[in-house]
Amino acid sequence: MAKEKYLLDDSLGYKLFHASRLMSNRLNKNFRDAGFDVTYEQWQILSRLYEKDGQTQNQLATKNERDQPSVSRLVDNMIKRGLVARISNKADKRINLIYLTDKGREMENSLTALALKTIEDASDSIDSKELEICLRVLDQVRENLK
Amino acid sequence: MAKEKYLLDDSLGYKLFHASRLMSNRLNKNFRDAGFDVTYEQWQILSRLYEKDGQTQNQLATKNERDQPSVSRLVDNMIKRGLVARISNKADKRINLIYLTDKGREMENSLTALALKTIEDASDSIDSKELEICLRVLDQVRENLK
DNA sequence: TGAATATACTTGTTGATGCAAGTATATTTC
DNA sequence: GAAATATACTTGCATCAACAAGTATATTCA
């Protein structure tokens, strides 16, 4: 029995990594081309705030499955761009609540449309049953690794 | 007909992004825990050199589907860690050929085993037919976006 | 109540990326 | 053969990430 040769190109890791990078880059480009100074990572935060405005950094970190320093610095950058505000909580001074600014709120429809368009581009000509299966597999991968 | 609400959590982009990040992080951790000071991105370069030693940065960039600055800096870091050497080509002085060092070469089996283990962990309990479909879908996504 | 612990967040360090611009060397073209 | 163009690579700048360590505030508990 010959030892199976490892081939980077055929591996789940590489395919995932590359597809993910292409998608983030495409979304960034779509945002940029439409005149929105928002990155994919910032969009993830904005999405959470569109679901519910005024969340703690900790909540945002948990929901987006990333660590607190990342959120802390993302919020810094988003404040610079005028997308959100960081309001210290009076009752518990450890806590910051993050709120959309008017500017951030006004972008919702446009950014959502661009995100949907990007997903459509990415899933063009893919059988919807197979896409469903792929999404389930990705869920299982996430479950296995978390 | 109600407008479909966009949900980040259900989107292809988010699932891809998150699964990919988890996998890179897991592989990095597996390398680190085993005492190898190698990142996932560096491993991608090493893999190409295991296939064929002595490639130009441009070839490495093309094969790994990333831009030249990334490869240039990855190679810098890999030289720092003693994994590869950058040899200027006499016939065409614009070209650098990247070669594995002994240290880099000796790691092949261990790193490959760790990469395979990571993929096994990630695909645990996933039906092999469905995994196949997922890989095909990922290929199509890459094709659609490149 | 005071010390220990927990929680929420920030900062430092290192590694990676995208994009634009720069340098050096080769090749093409007139 | 000189000017224009192409190629291979590097550098600068801004953003993001992982991990470890730090700060400030709350809570627990003895």
Tell me about this structure.
- Two copies of one chain form a homodimer.
- With 146 residues, chain A is mainly α.
- Chain A has a single domain, classed as Orthogonal Bundle (Arc Repressor Mutant, subunit A).
- Chain A is 63% helix and 8% strand.
- The first copy, chain A, has helices spanning 12-33, 40-51, 57-63, 68-80, 102-106, 108-122, 128-145; strands at 55-56, 84-88, 96-100.
- A three-stranded antiparallel beta sheet of chain A has the order 1-3-2.
- In chain A, a hairpin with a 7-residue loop joins strand 2 (84-88) and strand 3 (96-100).
- The model of chain A has no long low-confidence stretch (mean pLDDT 94).
- Chains A and B meet through helix 1, helix 2, helix 6 and helix 7 of A and helix 1, helix 2, helix 6 and helix 7 of B.
- Chain A binds a DNA duplex (30 and 30 nucleotides) through residues 21, 25, 28, 39, 41-42, 56-58, 66-74, 76-77, 92-96.
